[in-house]
Automatic annotation (TrEMBL):
<dbReference type="InterPro" id="IPR032106">
    <property type="entry name" value="2-oxogl_dehyd_N"/>
</dbReference>
<keyword id="KW-0560">Oxidoreductase</keyword>
<keyword id="KW-0809">Transit peptide</keyword>
<dbReference type="InterPro" id="IPR001017">
    <property type="entry name" value="DH_E1"/>
</dbReference>
<dbReference type="Pfam" id="PF16078">
    <property type="entry name" value="2-oxogl_dehyd_N"/>
</dbReference>
<dbReference type="GO" id="GO:0006096">
    <property type="term" value="P:glycolytic process"/>
</dbReference>
<dbReference type="InterPro" id="IPR042179">
    <property type="entry name" value="KGD_C_sf"/>
</dbReference>
<keyword id="KW-0496">Mitochondrion</keyword>
<dbReference type="InterPro" id="IPR031717">
    <property type="entry name" value="ODO-1/KGD_C"/>
</dbReference>
<dbReference type="Pfam" id="PF02779">
    <property type="entry name" value="Transket_pyr"/>
</dbReference>
<comment type="function">
    <text>The 2-oxoglutarate dehydrogenase complex catalyzes the overall conversion of 2-oxoglutarate to succinyl-CoA and CO(2). It contains multiple copies of three enzymatic components: 2-oxoglutarate dehydrogenase (E1), dihydrolipoamide succinyltransferase (E2) and lipoamide dehydrogenase (E3).</text>
</comment>
<comment type="similarity">
    <text>Belongs to the alpha-ketoglutarate dehydrogenase family.</text>
</comment>
<feature type="domain" description="Transketolase-like pyrimidine-binding">
    <location>
        <begin position="623"/>
        <end position="836"/>
    </location>
</feature>
<dbReference type="InterPro" id="IPR005475">
    <property type="entry name" value="Transketolase-like_Pyr-bd"/>
</dbReference>
<dbReference type="GO" id="GO:0006099">
    <property type="term" value="P:tricarboxylic acid cycle"/>
</dbReference>
<dbReference type="GO" id="GO:0005739">
    <property type="term" value="C:mitochondrion"/>
</dbReference>
<dbReference type="GO" id="GO:0004591">
    <property type="term" value="F:oxoglutarate dehydrogenase (succinyl-transferring) activity"/>
</dbReference>
Amino acid sequence: MYRVKAIASGLTRPALYQLKCLHNQRFAEVTCVPFRKYASSAQAESFLNGSSGSYVETMYESWQKDPNSVHKSWKAYFEGQEFVRPPSLGGSVPSLSSFSSKDIKDNLEVGKLIEAYQARGHTIAKLDPLEISTANLDEKTELSPSIFNFEESDLERKFTLPTTTYIGGSETEKPLKDIIERLKEVYCGHIGIELMHLNNKEQIDWIKQKFETPGIVRLTKEEKNTVLARLLRSQKFEEYLAKKWSSEKRFGLEGCEVLIPAMKTVIDTLSDRGVDDFIIGMPHRGRLNVLANVCRTPLERIFGQFDPDLERFEEGSGDVKYHLGMSIQRLNRVTNKNVSLSLVANPSHLEAVDPVVQGKTKAKQFYRGDSEGKKVVSMLLHGDAAFAGQGVVFETFHLSDLPDYTTNGTIHIVVNNQIGFTTDPRSARSSAYCTDGARMVNAPVFHVNADDPDAVVYVSKVAAEWRAEFGKDVVIDLVCYRKNGHNETDEPMFTQPLMYKKIAVQKPVLDQYAEQLIKEGVVTTKAYEEEIEKYNKICEEAFIHKKDHKKGEWLDSPWDNFFKKEGPGQERWMMVKPNTAVPEEKLNHIGMKVSSEPEDVTIHSGLKRIMKMRKQMVEKRQADWALGEALAWGSLLSEGYHVRLSGQDVERGTFSHRHAVLFDQNVDKKKIVPLNHLYPNQAKFQVHNSSLSEYGVLGFELGYSLENPYTLVIWEAQFGDFANTAQCIIDQFISSGKDKWTRESGITLLLPHGYDGMGPEHSSGRLERFLQMSNDDGDYFPPENEDFVTQQSHEINWFVCNFTTPANFFHAMRRQILLPFRRPLIVMSPKSLLRHKDAISSFDDMNEGSKFRRVIPESGAATQNAAGVKKLIFCSGKVYYDLIYEREKKELNDQIAIARIEQISPFPFHLVYFADFTVPI
């Protein structure tokens, strides 16, 4: 639609005759009498781009003054055609019939022909190395010259090239046959370009120029040598693994070995543009190859993962080797610049790592002050079936251009082996291409035949340049094949016999490319064979020394100097009990700041009442839930800890209790975040309403939490019931990430409505599921010792809490940051307690001397009547207030004691077992 807007914007109102709707091929009457009706959309838009008589007149007048002042196409038109000078717009509307000579009509047809190739050429491009499939399109693309009213005799005629193409280079006209040949070369060869769905003309022209300019796709001799060397290492690495561990599953890259040169070209190009930090997410396919040849993980360490005698010495739960993460700094030999590469650990759940990578990238950009993404870039690898089929792909794309979640563009590379395990693409997706989802965010898509390394490398370079130039997502679709089955032990002939008969006789891409370069004289046969021998020796040396490699951490973001031990050789982590109390003066200062009306923002009258009540609470040294969380976060900010809160409607709070962002009632988009105005040198508080997504957004926030241990990252579900939409992230990353990949995270999940009882859709954060996933052993009563509490906290996989007081919530928030290790925190946060008259805490429960309480014992009349107490009730969360009201109603205050279990996992065994309601716990 940008084309309609561009035409219309150049017209004065009287000159708006009639615009053809280019999208649906219907006419939209605007004003005046139409000057001509066209049979096709291409005819409606002249190659002169002159739907307006005034525009033509301007060009004509400029040509009269100086023939060289206008584009050559205009010059040729005015000099060589039967041109009738258009009258001024002040008079009657001219008829284009004055210009409808055969030459003009043919030039228009040439413009249509060129646009047809630009828009549809990719549908007949030679993308499949096996030459057995094409895009499943609704209709056959027809680009024959006869469709555009040309005959064979027209092929030698020269035509002026429109300004919408760059195929001529410095030439302004070409014979029709040369135009067609050039268009086929650009758009119908081994590269298929999807660009016409973009809504930005500058970006479309940029892509056209990158591919249409004559000679621009050719690689230099040096570049080809680099590609060959990288391709050699990629293929020979797979061959070596197949030789040494033929029965092991490794999900090799055979059939798409060119992925390694593609990734390294992206890194080279962006490194040259100043990027020095790459966050990578990928599935299992080719992961070991990427670790070896992109991340440059020592081969000894990779080979050690295949040795059963070595695996048991590694940390983690023995998760499969093709899920491991890695972080490394190395010198990029092409640019001679240092780069950092982080390959994020991921589960078998395809595409689940996508939002995690984006969140980690966003956090790294934040800490580096890289708001435009000029230093830190994310790269995501996908399989074709998963890219089309997994909804989290679309949730992640949906975050790509949101101001609070954007990473300023991601490089997406699809390893399109044209099969999903055993499922044919025709059964795996409804779209023509597996990449069609990317069109929704205006990402260009470059399809490329993976058996043409030169084309792949050039496309990768352009994709990287696009990201650097426009800061937007881009997709590379590597159309390849999978040499083996889903894994190396699988038999693919059961389900894809014809495809695998083709694959059986397909010459490997390395062999094809080596033959091509030897024929071109780029490399000699001897030099090529020497490189093979050299790499095989490197692999053999690594195999010999695989048992000598030092134990290494498979971490995608090591937290240097964060983990501390008691002393050299000690394996027990330091058991530090954090002090979560805050001085009274600071509580009062923060409380007054967040309860005061801003001076330059006119807030809602209802908010004025809320702020007034908050200030009164501060003056009384009290805090409700909203003030309690603000005091916790504000105190952490004052100590230099970054706090980020994200989720649906979190700025206001689903139940209108938080109001962390105050909006001006008179000025659009004018707002203030009080927690960012507490102290001059405080840390940054981020609070962001997310898109209506749980899976993608929680994954994003998890990734954010992985980057830096000194960040409190909080995701709040709109209702706890909706957390199950993000169950994959909870199950595969949050609950088990530490055991599988030694990855610690302090992410906090707030699940409102806990157990408030509002019906089947709004009552449960499913506390029981989180307890089922806890590694706390309910059948084992641990021995009591001085460090037991902290040791228990260290060994648990996460904390699960159901609080009854703002003060305990306050301490739990601070504990997340002040502990010497990181564990996720799951909170069954309330709804009814947000404004409950009894759910109020005194500053005494938050200032010096106070602490987090795992169990809160009875403190009422029953403590004065120990002999008369008939029952001790343990409860958790909101039900406590229901119980005390009922106890009061039946006058049983001195007969029934009620203790609250605030932290359910890890369970406070000793506090419950030795519970004595007469003694504070």
